[in-house]
Write a structure and sequence with these properties.
This protein is mainly beta and 426 residues long. It has helices at 6-24, 410-425, and strands at residues 27-28, 40-41, 54-57, 68-74, 80-87, 102-105, 109-110, 115-125, 127-134, 150-152, 158-160, 170-173, 180-188, 197-205, 208-213, 218-219, 233-239, 253-258, 266-274, 280-287, 296-304, 307-315, 323-324, 331-337, 340-348, 362-371, 376-378, 386-387, 399-403, 406-408. A hairpin with a 2-residue loop joins strand 21 and strand 22 (307-315). Residues 1-25 form the signal peptide. It is found in: Membrane. Residues 251-368 form the DOMON domain.
Length: 426
């Protein structure tokens, strides 16, 4: 009996692999997958890239519904060989009604220009496509305009796909004949609010692929945007020494609100500041008296057991502790980013109170300590309280920046700009 050489088995294996590839082709993701997340047969001889993958997923990318499969096989000439639909229960042993992969994201909200770690977990796979998309109403996708943000620092075996002419919002594998698995990406949020978003991935293994989605991530409004400061917003911020002008994220203390009151019955305020320790509070006050803050209206925000608290107080003068105000101010939203505390609150527009668009008042900004033994807020000395350059009413947009001991308002900056221009023309 003739004994077959080991090379014979290798030749048979290579021949079988060649025949399988000739019939089935190779599945890969490309720009043709941008809308439907379906891998295509790149060796089908058809420029349209025919798909022949078996799909495991729900009718709405993992949002409820019965799990089903779509099995499409085409030969190299594009002729359909097999097409059948059946429930997941008929797929045979080894498959369950849950995808073997998942997307994990660090955090439940995203900030402007901030980074999130997006990780695909669940074992080995052969191909991958990942996108970040806007959630529009009850739909996961919103067409090509739904792409949002950009991926950065890709692993070597991955590259960008220019879906919908957005070159950094979609990631696919390079198509190398290697096993992939448990891969992470850095995703950077845009510099503007985009509403709710989620990450969607299509994971390929053999001739099977799964479309998986992450949890919905809501927008975190902190740090605030300073683009509209001085036009449609009133803004004040304290910048560190040598950092002028600073961003909202770099500021030591910041306060802002919108000045367009048309068809509105209240004003939304945002207060942010650095906490030096767990007894620090941040505050804003409004009043007529510049030197002693007599009867100034004071709003305080602080942390207690990891949650922000808000108090409404009345300053009789700087020599006395502030008193509890009979008008309650509710905290709408808050966030803690390292040592930075952000608080958002609303106050109704009322001509009989200080929240009156026609009343001009000084604005005071400061931080201080909480005396928990006597349950009171300790006011700082007058030289540690920042104040607006002029009296303001709440319909006046401004952009004041404190750098060291200087108060630089939009009006002062405009005055100096005109002065320098006149000197240059002399």
């Amino acid at each position: 009996m003739t004994r077959l050489q080991p090379g014979f088995y290798l030749s048979v294996l290579i021949t079988l692999l060649f025949l399988v590839q000739t019939v089935f082709g190779i599945l890969r993701y490309s720009d043709l997958s941008c809308s439907d997340f379906v891998p295509r047969n790149v060796d089908s001889g058809n420029d349209n890239g025919q798909d022949y993958a078996q799909y495991y997923g729900s009718s709405r990318f993992g949002e409820g519904g019965s799990w089903a499969s779509r099995y499409r096989i085409r030969n190299r000439y594009g002729k359909k060989l097999v097409q059948k639909k059946r429930s997941i229960g008929g797929l045979g042993e080894g498959y369950s009604n849950e995808p073997p992969y998942k997307i994990s994201v660090t955090g439940r909200r995203y900030r402007r220009n901030s980074d999130l770690l997006v990780r695909i977990e669940g074992g080995d796979f052969d191909g991958l496509m990942v996108q970040s998309r806007v959630v529009a109403g009850d739909d996961v996708l919103r067409g090509g305009v739904g792409l949002i943000g950009q991926f950065r620092y890709l692993p070597y075996l991955f590259e960008y796909s220019p879906c919908f002419n957005l070159p950094f919002a979609t990631v696919i594998d390079k198509g190398r004949p290697v096993k992939l698995g448990n891969v992470s990406f850095i995703w950077t949020a845009p510099d503007a609010e985009a509403g709710d978003i989620r990450f969607i991935a299509s994971v390929l293994r053999g001739i099977h692929y799964w479309i998986i989605v992450s949890n919905v991530l809501s927008f975190n409004p902190f740090p605030i945007s300073t683009y509209a400061c001085g036009s449609s917003m009133a803004c004040f911020r304290v910048c560190p020494y040598g950092a002028y002008p600073c961003t909202a994220a770099e500021a030591l203390l910041i306060f802002s609100y919108g000045v367009d009151f048309r068809d509105k019955s209240e004003i939304t305020f945002t207060l942010g500041g650095r906490l030096h320790h767990n007894r620090t509070y941040i505050a804003v006050a409004f009043g007529d008296d510049l030197s002693k803050l007599v009867q100034a209206d004071m709003t305080v925000c602080y942390l207690e057991r990891g949650r922000a608290r808000m108090e409404h107080l009345l300053i009789e003068n700087l020599q006395l502790p502030p008193y509890q105000h009979n008008e309650v101010i509710d905290l709408d939203d808050f966030d803690v980013d390292g040592k930075m505390l952000w608080c958002k609150f609303r106050r109704p527009i009322n001509p009989s109170t200080i929240i009156n668009p026609r009343t001009s008042l000084y604005h005071f900004y400061f931080s201080g300590n909480i005396d928990y033994q006597y349950q009171r807020f300790v006011l700082p000395s007058r030289d540690r309280i920042y104040h607006s350059a002029f009296k303001r009413n709440f319909s006046h947009a401004f952009n004041e920046i404190v750098s060291g001991a200087r108060v630089l308002s939009s009006e002062i900056l405009s005055f100096f700009a005109c002065f320098v221009l006149v000197k240059l023309m002399d």
